[in-house]
Amino acid sequence: MSGRRSRSVGDIAVELGFKNVYNLEGGWKAADTIPHQPYAKNHSPWVHTIFEKETETAQYVVTDIETREAYIIDPVLDYDPFSSCVHPSTAKQIIEFVRKHKLNITKIIDTHVHADHLSAANYLKMHLDSKPEFWIGKNVTKVQDVFSKKYNFPKNDFRANGEQFDRLIDEGDTWTLGGNIQCDALFTPGHTPACVSYRIGDAGFVGDTLFMPDIGTARCDFPGGSVEDMYKSIHKIYDHWIDDTRIYVGHDYPPSESGRDYDVMTTLDAHKRFNKMINTHVSFDKYVSMRKERDASLKAPRFIHPSLQTNLRGGTLPSREQPADENEDPASVGRFFKIPVRWKD
Question: pLDDT digit string (tens) for 152-200?
């Protein structure tokens, strides 16, 4: 297009809040003279965000507009620790959105076993007419093995083999959303050993691997976490995905001094240039030092124990306990989350 029209479009984009907008004089002939990345079948899905502020979690509905096929990524099941009550208020918002837009949900994807919120995947499976599959990375079994021992799950009630999920995703798996939106998966361990980042068309969903550039990355101090693995995983994303990939993060915690509102998306190029912890100019040793120093100051997530004990089970709450008296009605005994206790002088 001519310079006049592209400049007008650029001005409108800036007014709408888009960043990194540039006008190239000379049209398509000039575009051929500058470095560019080839088209890679990265059709754009429609990404709708539902932000859950209690745990500051971004949930996504990712849709192929032509076919109305859609995925739900990292849905939240609400939990009130004071009343010990689990409720689906946020999940119902997702269902309402799906029904309003007549979407066909075929997959629910958790990027990892969340330690800060309960997964609503099982609830959504039961309440959506399409009965979608629940997907997670195959290394979930490593997390199940560690924490089933930590919480002393009864062997007759839980097996650490991933059977609680419909499909265990492997590195390099590919599939298609709708007619032409290409999808693939990268193993990105670091935050947990089971973290997977998903590319759906030109949109990347990285869970707790990357946060917004002014925050950096997720913590790496959970059992099975690794700062060294996190550095390698993020550089794997940098190397495998093209720069204009839209990166959608799992959480946002706006720094108080920034004055900005919640934000969950920027480009991969912005991370490579500006991520405060792991842009392309940060060395391995520097990142490891910064991440370990930051992790040493962090407390455990508020809902870590209810979250893990639910999410390891595929979003299912613990089974009802058996009554001590065999003559007692089993329905009279409730479900319980285990909370580890330590003595500290």
Answer: 998 888 999 999 999 999 999 999 999 999 999 999 999 999 999 999 9
User: What is the side-by-side strand order in the sheet with 246-248?
Assistant: 174-177, 181-187, 196-200, 203-205, 246-248, 265-267
pLDDT of residue 1: 44
State how far the Cα of 189 lies from the Cα of 124, in Å rounded to an integer. 27
Query: Where do we find the tokens 């066909």?
Result: 104
From the CB of residue 200, how many other CB atoms can be counted at a distance below 10 Å? 29
What is the phi/psi pair of residue 138, to 5°? -65, -20
- To the nearest whole number, what is the mean pLDDT of the chain? 92
CB 225 within 8 A of CB 66: no
Whether residues 170 and 210 fall in one domain: yes
Contact criterion met (CB below 8 Å) for 230 and 191:
yes
Domain that holds residue 142: 46-306
Total tally of structural domains belonging to the chain: 2
Q: Hey, CA dihedral for 239, 244, 246, 249, is it positive or negative? A: positive
Asked whether the predicted pLDDT for residue 151 surpasses 60, the reply is yes
Do 94 and 50 touch, CB atoms closer than 8 A? yes
Give the list of residues 6+ apart from residue 166 with CB closer than 8 angstroms, or none: 133, 134, 135
Does 332 map to a domain? no
Nearest CA-CA partner of 120 in 325, 262, 310: 310
Q: What is the pLDDT of residues 282-318, one digit of tens each?
A: 999 999 999 999 999 999 999 999 999 999 999 999 9
Residue that the structure tokens 């479900």 belong to: 335
Residue the block writes with tokens 């650029």:
10
Instruction: Please give the span between the terminal C-alpha atoms of the chain, in angstroms, as a whole number.
Output: 72
Query: Can you state the percent helix, strand and coil of the chain, rounding each to 5?
Result: 30, 20, 50
